[in-house]
Design brief:
The protein is an all-alpha fold. Helix content is about 75%, strand content about 0%.
C-alpha cells in the first residue's frame, strides 16, 4: 500500500511548476498580445521548469529561436504560388535541413509546428503571430526561470548522498560474502549502477546555478567530485577481487577492520595460495581506506 501511495507523491518540482504556471497566466492576462496568450504563457512556464539552470536556459532559447525561425520561414513560404500542402512539405524539409546545416542543437519540432500553422491557416499573419507568441511565451519563460533558479533552486545533493549510501550498502554485502564464505565472489554490477547514478547526479548538480549560494555550490561540487573519485577507485579494486576464482585468506588486520564496520567474518578461512592472499588483502585494505574517505566526504 505504501508503494502505491509513493507513486502519487507531490514533489517540490510539481509545486514549482504549478506556481509558475498560475503566476505567468495572471501576468500575461494583463500584458499578453495574442488570443492564446494564456496557453503560450503556460507552455513557456512549463518549458522553463527544468532540473538545472543550463537546461532551463536552453529550453527558453529553444522556444524563442523556434518560434522566430518558424515564423520567418512560414512568411516566406506564404509568398510562393504553390498549394498549402506543398508549401508545408517544403517548409518542414527546409527547417530540418537548415537546423542541421547551421548546427542548431535545439529541437526543430517547434519551428516545424509554426510552419504548419502559418501555411495551413491563411488568416494567421506570420510575423505578428510569431512575435506575439514570443512575447506571451517569454512571460511564462521568465516567471518559470525566476521561480526555478531563485525562489526554489533544485538541489540534488541529498540525492547524491543517498546514492553514496546505497553504494556503500552494496559494498558491505560484497565484503560480507567474501569474508564470510571465501567463495566465488559476485560481480560488481549493482555498484556500477550506483556509480553511474552518482555521475549523472553530479552532472546535474554542476549544471545548476545557486545565485544566492555560489560559494557554497563551488565548495560542495569539489567535495562531491572527490566522492566520485573515491567511488571509482573503490570499484576498480572490487572489480579485481570479483574476477578472482576464489578470494584469499584475510589477515588479522583486515578481519578486525571488517568486524568493526559490522561485517560478518568467519572465524577462519582457508588459504588458497600465498599470491591470492596477498592480492586479496591488498585490495581489501585499499577498499576499506577508500570507503572511509568516501563516507567522511559526505559526513557519515
Amino acid at each position: 500500500m505504501q508503494k502505491i501511495y509513493s507513486r502519487f507523491h507531490i514533489g517540490l518540482r510539481t509545486v514549482k511548476t504549478v506556481i509558475a504556471v498560475v503566476l505567468s497566466m495572471v501576468i500575461v492576462d494583463s500584458y499578453g498580445t495574442t488570443d492564446s496568450k494564456l496557453v503560450f504563457a503556460m507552455l513557456g512556464a512549463m518549458a522553463a521548469m527544468q532540473p538545472t539552470f543550463k537546461d532551463s536556459l536552453e529550453s527558453c532559447l529553444t522556444q524563442i529561436v523556434g518560434v522566430l525561425f518558424g515564423g520567418v520561414m512560414g512568411a516566406l513560404l506564404r509568398m510562393l504560388p504553390v498549394p498549402q500542402l506543398a508549401a508545408t512539405a517544403l517548409g518542414l524539409m527546409l527547417v530540418i535541413v537548415l537546423y542541421n546545416a547551421l548546427r542548431i542543437r535545439f529541437s526543430p519540432s517547434l519551428p516545424c509546428f509554426i510552419v504548419v500553422m502559418v501555411c495551413i491557416t491563411p488568416s494567421v499573419a506570420p510575423m505578428q503571430y510569431a512575435f506575439g507568441r514570443v512575447w506571451d511565451s517569454a512571460i511564462g519563460l521568465a516567471v518559470g526561470m525566476l521561480i526555478n533558479t531563485l525562489v526554489f533552486p533544485y538541489d540534488n545533493s541529498r540525492m547524491i548522498r543517498k546514492t553514496v549510501e546505497n553504494l556503500d550498502r552494496e559494498l558491505l554485502r560484497f565484503m560480507e560474502k567474501m569474508a564470510g564464505y571465501n567463495a566465488v565472489l559476485p560481480d560488481v554490477s549493482a555498484m556500477e549502477k550506483y556509480m553511474s547514478d552518482l555521475t549523472s547526479q553530479l552532472n546535474i548538480f554542476s549544471r545548476q546555478k545557486f545565485f544566492t549560494r555560489a560559494r557554497w555550490q563551488s565548495g560542495k561540487l569539489a567535495e562531491l567530485r572527490r566522492c566520485e573519485s573515491y567511488a571509482r577507485e573503490l570499484i576498480a579494486h572490487l572489480e579485481v577481487l570479483s574476477v578472482m576464482k576464489k578470494a584469499g585468506a584475510l589477515n588479522e588486520e583486515n578481519r578486525e577492520k571488517l568486524k568493526a564496520i559490522g561485517t560478518l567474518v568467519c572465524e577462519s578461512s582457508e588459504s588458497v595460495s600465498a599470491e591470492a592472499d596477498l592480492i586479496t588483502n591488498y585490495h581489501v585494505s585499499q577498499i576499506l581506506r577508500l570507503r572511509q574517505e568516501l563516507l567522511s566526504q559526505i559526513g557519515v
